[in-house]
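[09:14] KT: can someone run the structure on this one? pasting the chain below
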Amino acid sequence: MAIVAPLCGWADCNGGNSNPQGRRASRRLPRVNNNQVLSKGNWLSFTGLKCAKGSQFFVERNRINVIKAGRRRRKTNAAAGKAMAVALQPVKESNNKQQTDTRQRRVVVTGMGVATCLGHDPDTFYKNLLQGKSGISSIERFDCTDFPTRIAGEIKSFSTDGWVAPKFSKRMDQFMLYLLTAGKKALMDGQMTEEILGKLDKSKCGVLIGSAMGGMKVFNDAVEALRISYRKMNPFCIPFATTNMGSAMLAMDLGWMGPNYSISTACATSNFCILSAANHIIRGEANVMLCGGSDAAIIPIGLGGFIACRALSQRNESPTKASRPWDA
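[09:31] RB: done, structure tokens below
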């Protein structure tokens, strides 16, 4: 929407006497050229049209048509030796829009949960970081003898017992199992008991946990099954391969109905998710958010892909010294 102000004669008005007056007046005008109608079928409708010698404004009903009409009129007047100018001004937005007061809206971290190659609880994980321990070791999940890189930050001794239902743990991709387990550990670490969870407004509780790669293994297994027949494919291969399904599954498990989606920004995924989750709380859209990131790319296609782009170290004999960017 824009306000258009004709600064000289408009359409077939020369003195303004033939123009309708008043804000609610309307008129249908044909396209004209030297007082000759060019097209009887092409009409423009305006609201609030006033003479250029009067209030000199009208509010358009169709912005595109008005702009086109102005261009045609300028060309017509130029051919007729007349001068004309049209000024466009943006319409001011309404000041009545309600906005959430965020001045006193603080965001705090109340609990953390992890599933990493350096530990499965925040204290162990942080202690190993401070001691400079490396979680890089030889890959044991599959035979990688033919790969030039045979080391990775593989999560070992990981268990979903007590965190994920067995019927789901058999079907889900590993990245979703990490996500569900760490998410529930974060609730426990924040002392979010069943009693407290029951008192929460679930429409104000959200999950924003992203993934850079998504369910790579589930998708890769589906491709291998397709080589035989589509009937051999896992019916969950599509939903369990998408990056947002981890957040969705955790929200469904908890019954949370607040903001729920995922962000995928490569290695910065978790940071963006945490920032966006904090903004939801600041804006008053949520009171509690589970946020972070999860990936499980240590499979043949993931390892091969990173090797192909020359992103991995080949110091297989000294895995703990393979990647130390902060060491002198």
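[09:33] KT: thanks! The CA atoms of residues 138 and 317 lie 9 Å apart.
[09:34] RB: yep, looked fine to me
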